[in-house]
Amino acid sequence: MNRKQLITILLALAVLGGAGLVLMNRHDSSWSAPQGKMGQKLFPNLVLNDVGALHIAAAGDLHLAAKDGLWRVQERAGYPADLSKIRDLLLKLSELKISQSEPIGQSQLARMDLLPPATGTNMGTNTATQVEIQDKQGKTLQSVLLGKKHFEQSSRPSPYGEFPNGRYVMLPDDPKDLLLISDPLDSIEVNPESWLDRDFFKVDQVASVSLVSTNATNSWNLTRESESAPWVLADAKAGEMLDSNKVSSLAGTLSYASFVDAATNTAPAATGLDKPLAVTLTTFDHFTYDLKIGNKTPENNLYLTVAVAADIPTNRLAGKDEKPEDKQKLDKEFQDKTKALQDKLAKEKAFGQWVYLVTPSLVDPLIRDRSQLFVEKKEETSAAGANAAPTALPKPDAEMPGLLDIPAATNPPPAAAPK
């Protein structure tokens, strides 16, 4: 072999080696690229201060948006959303990290529940929940498709069932990679009612309660002089005795008021609010709550509206024997209380903008018929029966001897002794 041939062979080997190295690097890259995402944030460029809206799509659509200083639920006529729930979700999304990644083909999307939400006629079947994080103008900042939840494999199953510890997701701008995150994101729901702010009006220190029924004979009005005084029925008729057990609950019925949902059908004729039961409560803090209660829904809920007003005193009358050194302290207490009541009024007046669905248990004590407030008549009948004169015994039958007519028994003669 001459020198020229040797050089030719060496060059050929160098070319082949270089080509092999390139192919090997490409092969390694195809396997290591997805794995290289492990530990990275799912949304590395998300800036929370830029977020102004959320759009969640699955079998339906949910739109949450910041407006007038509050997050609101568009599908509930702009009712205030639960700020803490939204804040917790956004913080979680901003910190999510990728636990695992692997390539995925289009044919595998259905198996992982990662088909786009609006695909074909089988909407909701093997489809993902899509979450779009938007800015204040509605432009999408980040988007993700949420697929199947991940369950940890265990050789010792829990008697309480399995709980998810992660979720498979896919980024729309990277549809070839299946990603696993270590949070199932259970709080992400498309149901509007699950995002509503549940804070509601609260009625304390009740001074009076009245019901105006659609039937005038069922209306009533109860008042009391103080929180410890008994209830008194206005225009009480003879024989009407209040049942203390039935009326004692009136004071606390709305202390912890809550609602099921904000109604979407608010037409008065459909809700029954064109001919409602009207309940008015006043408090010792000068608040007035006017409730209108309408029809019952097929789900056994009632339509309700509330209007809140108050006549809050702004000036304190000094006591007759008030000492100068006490005035500053008492004035400060009065001002603090006045401010708290004014804040309460401003907050609760806002509830008058919507129609609510509430459970019957919330208002049942307030909408009893007048007759249901009293001691039951059977108790009165029983008491009357106890005081009635005893019924006379019937006279004995003339054909039968009376007890006194039966002659006294005599001792029979002794039996004769046997012979």
Give a verbal description of the structure.
The structure is a single chain. By secondary structure, the chain is of the alpha+beta class. Among the domains are: 48-152 and 162-187; 206-316 and 328-373, no CATH class. The protein has helices at 3-35, 83-95, 244-247, 268-271, 324-349, 360-363, 377-387, and strands at residues 51-57, 61-67, 70-73, 79-80, 98-103, 129-135, 140-151, 164-170, 177-181, 206-212, 220-223, 232-233, 261-262, 277-283, 287-296, 302-310, 356-358. Strands 4-3-2-1-6-7-8-9-5 form a 9-stranded antiparallel β-sheet. Strands 12-11-10-14-15-16-17-13 form an 8-stranded antiparallel β-sheet. Strand 10 (206-212) and strand 11 form a beta hairpin. The radius of gyration is 40 Å and the shape is elongated.
Q: Any chance you could write out the topology, listing elements then pairs?
A:
Elements: H1 3-35, E1 51-57, E2 61-67, E3 70-73, E4 79-80, H2 83-95, E5 98-103, E6 129-135, E7 140-151, E8 164-170, E9 177-181, E10 206-212, E11 220-223, E12 232-233, H3 244-247, E13 261-262, H4 268-271, E14 277-283, E15 287-296, E16 302-310, H5 324-349, E17 356-358, H6 360-363, H7 377-387
Antiparallel strand pairs: 1-2, 1-6, 2-3, 3-4, 5-9, 6-7, 7-8, 8-9, 10-11, 10-14, 11-12, 13-17, 14-15, 15-16, 16-17
